[in-house]
Write a structure and sequence with these properties.
With about 475 residues, the chain is an all-beta fold. The chain contains 1 helix and 35 strands. The longest helix is centred in the N-terminal third of the chain and has 11 residues.
Length: about 475
């Protein structure tokens, strides 16, 4: 029904909404410690990713030697990182488990890791269909021994895993997929069949496009190699050189729609620096390498995430005389970049950061030595992923365009015909509380009046949603 037929209270709420919304500031919040043990707690190498997010659900994984054997642990936040639930052990074995990687879509969470079963490495997988509340039994993915460092990605019901494998006497990259959300798995595919040594693979997926990169040693040089699938991982194109510097290491890939970014550290400039390479057509062609850091110290192991037109990169860096976590952001898809931001300032080394964006916020997890032993820490960039972080334009919103979404709603609202569209949702103070798809508007929020705008649109019609 039209807005003018709604209660007078809603007119008041709209007027209150239009004013405080004009300025919304982004900020990095204080560090949050996630692990608490006297043993070593450690995130994985950056290209495996230890943090994933879907709307307000933030999921993290790491390994911890609390029991005397390294085990995989999981922790989640149900309110966008404001608070955290208890730690859950995903493995509890009499052998060690390392290097977990996590991916999520909607309420489905997927984790892959490396297990030292019978003193040899194997890749295992576990899934949850209820946002990490319960977990399936572990499934072994690698048929051979000596398989290490998995990376996992998900797109809808398709789950994609890559890993290092030493079955042939040289490290190679193998791939395996599930098309039913991790219930069953297709046969493996060898991706790096003629590169002499291939290390540290990373995988990303967006729709039917799947991309994998790795560090390869061929012809006496270390470079980044790339391959992609355009049919959801069923077949793969021949791999190609993505770099030709002769000293490129530890790549990480992220994709969103047709945008793809690969980051790595590179010694071509005389010191190890962070580089980025982007594609705007799903990996069919690439822009030249772009150097992101400029300092005489060492910069290592970047992680990259894409959300809307924003690109987020984290790494660890020794420019300040100590290993610290740094962050860099592009607001235009990687064309230009903001200055570096130092995220950690405490005594002790900070290493192996992973980054993701969800809704308006950016989430980072890393390993930190400040407590006298290695622990896992988390940091949130509030509104750092906001499409318009410092000013939400309201001058072009006409009261005639404001409508009340039909009621009642019990847990969340739906907009017929807009199930795949994304919408920003604000509370009555003008604070942006998240970005939601049109079939799940307000999922996980408490009852109340909220204001709804299409995400990333030039026109900004405003709707009022009442959740109860």
């Amino acid at each position: 029904m039209l807005f003018h037929r709604a209660p007078v209270l809603l007119w008041f709420l709209v007027l209150q909404f239009l004013c405080p919304l004009s300025v919304v500031h982004a900020q990095w919040e204080p560090d949050v410690r996630l692990s608490f043990s006297d043993s070593t707690s450690c995130t994985s190498l950056n290209n495996t990713r230890c943090v994933a997010a879907s709307e307000n659900m933030i999921h993290t994984v790491w390994w911890d030697s609390l029991t005397g054997y390294a085990q995989i642990y999981y922790k989640r936040s149900t309110d966008g990182g404001s608070s955290w639930g208890p730690t859950t052990a995903l493995t509890m074995n009499f052998y060690s488990s390392f290097d977990p990687s996590i991916a999520v879509t909607d309420s489905n969470v997927h984790v892959a890791w490396m297990d030292f079963m019978s003193d040899v490495e194997k890749i295992f997988y576990k899934r949850s269909s209820d946002n990490g509340a319960h977990w399936s039994p572990a499934v072994r993915l690698s048929p051979s021994s000596f398989a290490a460092i998995p990376s996992i990605a998900v797109s809808g019901l398709q789950v994609h895993v890559v890993w290092d494998d030493y079955r042939s006497g040289a490290w190679q990259v193998y791939y395996k997929r599930s098309t039913d959300g991790g219930v069953s798995w297709d046969p493996e595919i060898h991706l790096s069949d003629s590169v002499v040594f291939s290390y540290y693979p990373s995988v990303s997926a967006s729709g039917s496009y799947v991309m994998s990169v790795w560090e390869g040693y061929l012809g006496g040089n270390e470079d980044i190699y790339y391959t992609r699938s355009t049919d959801g991982g069923a077949t793969w194109q021949p791999y190609t050189h993505l770099t030709n510097t002769g000293g490129a290491y530890a790549p990480c890939v992220a994709s969103s729609d047709s945008s793809v970014h690969v980051v790595w550290y590179d010694g071509a400039s005389g010191a190890y620096e962070i580089f980025d390479k982007r594609s705007e057509n799903g990996g069919a062609s690439w822009w030249p390498d772009q150097r992101l850091t400029y300092n005489s110290a060492l910069s290592y192991n970047p992680s990259v995430a894409i959300s809307y037109s924003k690109v987020h990169v984290v790494w660890y860096d020794h420019r300040d005389g100590n290993w610290e976590i740094y962050y860099k952001r592009s607001n235009d898809g990687g064309v230009t970049w903001e200055p570096d931001t130092r995220l950690t300032t405490y005594t002790g080394r900070s290493l192996y950061a992973s980054v993701t964006g969800s809704g308006p916020d950016v989430h980072v997890i890393w390993t930190d030595e400040r407590d006298g032993n290695w622990e896992v820490y988390y940091k949130r960039y509030l509104f750092g992923n906001n499409v318009s972080e410092t000013q939400q334009e309201t001058s072009d919103i006409s009261l005639k365009s404001i409508r009340l979404v039909p009621n009642p709603f019990t847990t969340f609202a739906t907009l017929p015909g807009h199930s795949s569209d994304h919408f920003s949702l604000y509370d009555i103070s003008g604070r942006r509380v998240g970005v939601f798809k049109g079939d799940k508007i307000g999922l996980g929020l408490s009852a109340g009046i909220y204001f709804l705008k299409p995400e990333g649109k030039d026109s900004k019609p405003l709707r009022i949603v009442k959740l109860r």
